[in-house]
C-alpha cells in the first residue's frame, strides 16, 4: 500500500503548488486540508475565524486532516497543522511527512505578491515580514520534529519535486 505523503511548512512555502506537481509525478491523488475545509464549510479561513475564532478553526483543521487521509494521496496541510500534538502524531503514524523549508524573507516575499487574504487572515496583526519571522521562530522546531524529510523550498518547483522524490526513494531503499 502506498502511504499518504503530507507536506508541511509555513504559509507560502509551496505546499499547494508543490503538492499538485508531486501528485502528478507520482500518479497520486491530491488533497489540501484548507481547500477541504472550504468545501465542507462553504466558508473561507477568514470567515471561519471571524465567526468562530482560531480555536474552532484548529479543531476543524484536525477533522479535515483525518477526512483527506487516504493511500496514494499527496496532502497539502494548513501552515498551522503542526501546532496540535495530535496532528503531528497522526501524520507521522499514517504517512511520510515532508517539510518544505525556506527563510521567512522568501516566504514573506511570496505572500506579499499573492496575499490571498481570505485564506490567510493575519495570525498576529503584525506586518507580513515580521509575522512570518515570528511564526517560523515559534514553529520551526515543530516542523522539524514532525517531518521525516526536510526539503529546500527555495528551489524552482521542479527541483523541489525532484528532491522530494529522491528523499522518498532513498527512504524506501534504506
Ligand atoms: N518553489 C517555488 N518557487 C517560487 N514560487 C513558489 C514556489 N512554491 C510556491 N511558490 C509561490 O508561492 C505562493 C504560495 O504558494 P502556495 O500557495 O503553494 O503555498 P502554501 O504553502 O500552500 O501556502 P498556505 O499555507 O497559505 O496554503 C504562490 O504564489 C506560489 O506560486
Ligand atoms: O499558518 C497558519 O496558521 C495558517 C496557514 C494556512 O494554510 C491556513 O490553514 C490558515 O490561514 C492558517
Ligand atoms: Mg496551501
From TrEMBL:
Phosphoprotein as UniProt keyword: no
Pathway-wise, it operates in: Metabolic intermediate biosynthesis; chorismate biosynthesis; chorismate from D-erythrose 4-phosphate and phosphoenolpyruvate: step 5/7
Binding positions (ATP): 12-17, 120
InterPro entries the UniProt entry points to = P-loop_NTPase, Shikimate/glucono_kinase, Shikimate_kinase/TSH1, Shikimate_kinase_CS
> What keywords were assigned to this record?
Amino-acid biosynthesis, Aromatic amino acid biosynthesis, ATP-binding, Cytoplasm, Kinase, Magnesium, Metal-binding, Nucleotide-binding, Transferase
Per UniProt, the cofactor note for this protein states: Binds 1 Mg(2+) ion per subunit.
| An example Gene Ontology molecular-function term | shikimate kinase activity
Can you say where in the cell this protein is located?
Cytoplasm
Top-rank taxon of the source lineage equals Bacteria
Q: What is its EC number?
A: 2.7.1.71
| CDD domains listed in its UniProt record | SK (cd00464)
Cofactor(s), names only, from the UniProt record: Mg(2+)
Which residues of this UniProt protein bind substrate? 34, 58, 79, 139
The family line of this record is: Belongs to the shikimate kinase family.
The UniProt subunit note reads as follows:
Monomer.
Physiological role? Catalyzes the specific phosphorylation of the 3-hydroxyl group of shikimic acid using ATP as a cosubstrate.
What protein name is recorded for this chain?
Answer: Shikimate kinase 1
Amino acid at each position: 500500500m502506498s502511504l499518504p505523503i503530507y507536506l508541511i511548512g509555513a504559509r507560502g512555502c509551496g505546499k499547494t503548488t508543490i503538492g499538485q506537481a508531486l501528485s502528478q509525478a507520482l500518479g497520486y491523488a491530491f488533497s489540501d486540508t484548507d481547500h477541504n475545509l472550504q468545501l465542507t464549510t462553504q466558508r473561507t479561513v477568514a470567515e471561519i475565524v471571524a465567526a468562530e475564532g482560531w480555536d474552532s478553526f484548529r479543531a476543524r483543521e484536525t477533522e479535515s486532516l483525518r477526512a483527506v487521509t487516504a493511500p496514494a494521496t499527496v496532502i497539502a496541510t494548513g501552515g498551522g497543522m503542526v501546532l496540535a500534538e495530535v496532528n503531528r502524531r497522526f501524520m507521522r503514524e499514517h504517512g511520510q511527512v515532508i517539510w518544505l523549508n525556506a527563510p521567512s524573507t522568501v516566504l514573506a516575499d511570496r505572500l506579499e505578491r499573492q496575499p490571498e487574504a481570505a485564506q490567510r487572515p493575519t495570525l498576529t496583526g503584525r506586518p507580513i515580514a515580521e509575522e512570518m519571522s515570528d511564526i517560523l521562530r515559534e514553529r520551526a522546531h515543530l516542523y522539524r520534529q514532525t517531518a521525516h524529510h526536510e526539503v529546500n523550498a527555495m528551489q524552482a518547483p521542479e527541483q523541489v519535486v525532484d528532491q522530494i522524490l529522491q528523499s522518498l526513494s532513498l527512504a524506501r531503499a534504506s
